[in-house]
Amino acid sequence: MAKIVIAGGTGLLGQALEKALLAEQHEVFILSRSPKKPNHIKWDVKNGTIDNSKIDKTEYVINLCGENVGDKRWTAARKEALLSSRVDTTKFLFEIFRNQESLKQYLTASGVNTYPLNHGKKTFLESEAFGDDYLSQLVKKWEESADLFTAKVPVYKLRISMVLASEGGALSKLLPLVKLGIASPIGKGNQSNNWVHQVDVSNAFIHGIKHQLNGAYNLTAESISNRIFMRQLMNVHGKKMWAPNVSRFIMKLVMGERATIVIDGAYTSSNKLEESGFQFKFPNLKGALAELFQK
Ligand SMILES: NC(=O)c1ccc[n+]([C@@H]2O[C@H](COP(=O)([O-])OP(=O)(O)OC[C@H]3O[C@@H](n4cnc5c(N)ncnc54)[C@H](OP(=O)(O)O)[C@@H]3O)[C@@H](O)[C@H]2O)c1
Prior knowledge:
The protein is an alpha/beta fold. It is 37% helix and 19% strand. The two termini are 30 Å apart. The model has no long low-confidence stretch (mean pLDDT 97). Bound molecules: NADP nicotinamide-adenine-dinucleotide phosphate.
């Protein structure tokens, strides 16, 4: 049993990870701006305050903080919030835990949207350089801030793909269109849809702890085209894909710069994580969707 603090553990990934860690008998505390449960600890990153009565002897810190990249238009203020919610939280965590002798590892969510975009079928590994688009550079700064911890402990940076969950996340935005039978690929549909099941995200963090992993690891169950992804999603719901592709132009008009999340992409591989012994519970989309929708 270990003492684990999850910053930003109240969201989609954090709630599932907390359950998975508790099932393994760990002691879990959550840092939140709005604490709601006895194991929640109030912190305020902007003002640099935290109730530190419960955080001594922490062994693992996991950072899942971050404003949602897809929710709102990328105005200058939004970009600042996206960056600050990742980098400033990390820096504050470093201030809080840098002198704790008990700390064994720092783990952080990162994004797989970090590689140069639209290179056809080329598959990107962790050894590749960062892309120069906005999201890649955001992830670069996020990971660089996590590297503050490298002088002290191993730093596990999990480059997470689009997470599929039965409630919330990307699927909750697509499902209304699927149920109406009008979901279709975006652009030519050749861009990658890197995805991972929510259970495998929790498992990958636990695997990182068990094996004291250090460095960046892609977490992609399958790197498939947007066309194949949409077709399988429709099929699982008993629908045939018939609607015309949505043009990139329309997506840009509706979403602005953040349309890049759905119209561009880079194919990635989780070989490095799998070579460390990790096994996906949901390695293919059909099985993952079947499990999510039978609930
Ligand atoms: N879901 C995905 O598909 C996906 C894919 C790749 C990477 N990720 C990354 O994984 C992390 C967790 O994702 P998620 O889906 O669980 O996100 P989520 O549901 O939006 O939860 C994010 C958490 O971050 C905290 N937070 C947000 N803004 C903050 C700020 N300014 N200061 C301090 N805390 C802040 C919130 O905690 P409180 O409100 O309680 O303070 C919230 O619980 C995020 O960094 C996300 O970018 C997610």
